[in-house]
Amino acid sequence: MATSFALDSSLLSKLDDRKRRNQPRWDADIIHSDDAGDFFSCDYLSLSHHPHLRERFLSTLASEPRLLGSTGSRALTGSTVSHIGLEKYLADELGVEKTMVYVSGYTANITFFGCVPQAGDVILCDEYIHASIHDGIRLNRPKLGGALCVPTQLPSIREGKATLFVVVESVYSMDGDFGPLHGILEIVERLVPRESAHIVVDEAHSIGLYGPGGKGLVRAWGLEKRLHTGMMTFTKTLNFTGGVMTMNATVYEYLSNHSVPWMFTSAPAHVDMIGMKFCFDVLKSAEADRLRETVMDLSRFFLSLFAQSTRDIPKSVLSLLNSETKNLNSRGLISPIFAIFSPDVVALQNHLNKKGNSEEQIKSLVEALREWALAQGSNVIKQDEALRSKL
């Protein structure tokens, strides 16, 4: 394969710069063992290791007449009975007018935000929302007119001629906290005319863990009728592939006729549609309810043990650097989270645990964190003493 030396030199320089600043660099040398305690993957209910799901899924596939490609984009031959049927099924289950399925949650977000907001509209979003939403907004920037100043659009919003999009997540995976949906709804409904407000909630990390049948935090709190658009992904708790947007019929029709990714990307394969429905059905089962209870029990156990084991360590010390993740991996713990994403280990407490982890593995993680924190604290003290000696 030919080499472009100028390009390679430039790319290597950027990679070296990330290393100097301790920013994340994917390490191909780390291979995670299936037997390792997994505290950071998105397989929250450990469905990937469930003993009976494989047989049940294969049995479901055996009865299906079509499994492979959709034969075209949704705008051409890809809107099959499987695709339309899944969208109707999900709409009925979630209590919305329409749903639109995508190959991933990332594609769902960039498609919606890159297409739906119109010239003169304003997007008000949390800086910690998913990168896919930021990317979609950037794609739409020429139509929106670049960086808009909200006050200049207030007259149009007040008169119902422009839309204010308010975008949040229900669960933030990196900090492990909930979005203040009640407060946001109260403010928007009080200050923004009803015809001008459009609230979007990303439930990627909520679906499967919270709510009746694992249908998300929005439905756990009974807020679904007060929101306009939602995004859910099948790649995390549901442990499959694909994403889905909930919306009204007008938005669905607009996306079907104006969304470039929807019109020019091949539709997901039939096996994806079958798998998405299969996994969604699993989440509604009594078995999934038990798995969710186990996750919450393990989370409470971790919180208690972590607080007890680190009560003598300043919270400012508990920051895990990228270079330390190999050490955890060598001890049978999966921890590929980089400090640039979440520098405060304490902030991750509420979203660390998975059903598949045992109490012994949690004890091992806490022990490793404590050992590291004590060493880190010792280094901080030494650096402080060295600095004082020079004064």
UniProtKB/TrEMBL annotation:
Database matches in Pfam families: Aminotran_1_2
Entry superkingdom: Eukaryota
Any one biological process term the GO annotation gives: biotin biosynthetic process
InterPro entries: Aminotransferase_I/II_large, AON_synthase_class-II, PyrdxlP-dep_Trfase, PyrdxlP-dep_Trfase_major, PyrdxlP-dep_Trfase_small
GO molecular function, one term: transferase activity
Keywords, alphabetical: Pyridoxal phosphate, Transferase
Parts forming coiled coils: none
Requisite cofactors: pyridoxal 5'-phosphate
Residues annotated as domain Aminotransferase class I/classII large: 61-270
Family the entry assigns: Belongs to the class-II pyridoxal-phosphate-dependent aminotransferase family. BioF subfamily.
Protein's name according to its UniProt entry: Aminotransferase class I/classII large domain-containing protein
